[in-house]
Every structure is written in structure tokens, then in C-alpha cells.
């Protein structure tokens, strides 16, 4: 897994939205923590600590199986390519969306980048594709849709999450203080995770 990590998310808005999501779709779990969202929503401090006050990541490549002898080569090439990608940039997450993984075993409620930051992330995705291609690995999706996933559920529940995203967006639009509120993060670094080991690819600087 190769990802760009981010920070500085609007906690108050996400707290409200996550509570609404928990009421609309049962059996949602926090990404990377696997706590039940409904339980987290009972304790605001725990919800913020476990789900919201943490680094988020945007996938830059597919999660693929690689051979042990390929690891050093892949990491070295990625580090070389990302030498010029060390400037921080902002990402605005303006669209609630749902995604399902390739084998339909998990569904995700996510925030998608549609404007600010999209060109920078897309460029990074293409750089990863070049390295993958040289190692015979499958490239990213043809039309990348960079996003952060906040919660997940077992199986393909697209219909439920599609309805939930519509209701969340309608709710935001009905509350004047959140109508034009973009959730904004700043790119901080790129890492490559192989098994349980994490390789630093590049660290952003101001």
C-alpha cells in the first residue's frame, strides 16, 4: 500500500456527520481502528481520538502482492521519483462518496478530492504507476478518484451508502454554517507499507 498522509481536519463537522452516518447505516466501523462507529458516537472524546484526530491517508496505488526481491527496487525507485514532491499542498475534500473494494468484501464511506489538490495527487498517482509498471504490477484505476475513507462495512452495501451520502449532503446544505464548509487537509508525507513494515518515501516541507 502506498499512501500520502494528511492532517488538520475539521473535527466539529466530522463529528456531526459521523453521528448522522451511524444513525443511517448500522454496522459501520472506523477505518484502521475497527471500532464500531455507533459505540464511538456515544463518547465524543473517544470518537475524536480514535476516528478523527489522527492522520488520514490517500491511496496513491493499488494494494498489490509483491515479491520479496522486488521490495528494495520499488522503494528505491519511489524515493527517487518523489524527490521533487516535497512541497506541502492543500487538499479540499468536498464530496461525500462511497466505494467498494475490488473483491466486494468491504464498502467505505469516504470524502473525495474534487478540486484543490486533485492535480497534485493525480501526478503522484501517475508516478507510482510508472514504478508499478516497471515491476509488472497492476496500475491504479484509469480515472483516479483520490479520497480518504473514514468508516467501512462488510460486503457491498452500495445502495445504503449511496442513500446515506445524499442525506449527509442534504443535511450539510440545510445548515447554513456548514453549507460552504470544505474539509481541508495538508499533504505531509508519502509512505509505502509492505506487510507490517512502513518505508518513508518522502517528507513534505513548508
TrEMBL record:
Residues forming coiled coils: 154-181
Region forming the signal peptide: 1-23
GO molecular function: hydrolase activity; lyase activity; nuclease activity
GO terms under biological process: U6 snRNA 3'-end processing
Pfam family, one: HVSL
InterPro entries, per the entry: Usb1
Nuclease keyword on record: yes
Domain of life where this protein originates: Eukaryota
UniProt keyword annotations, A-Z: Coiled coil, Hydrolase, Lyase, Nuclease, Nucleus, Signal
Protein name per UniProt: U6 snRNA phosphodiesterase 1
Organism: Brachypodium distachyon (Purple false brome)
Taxonomic lineage from the root: Eukaryota, Viridiplantae, Streptophyta, Embryophyta, Tracheophyta
Gene that encodes the chain: LOC100839402
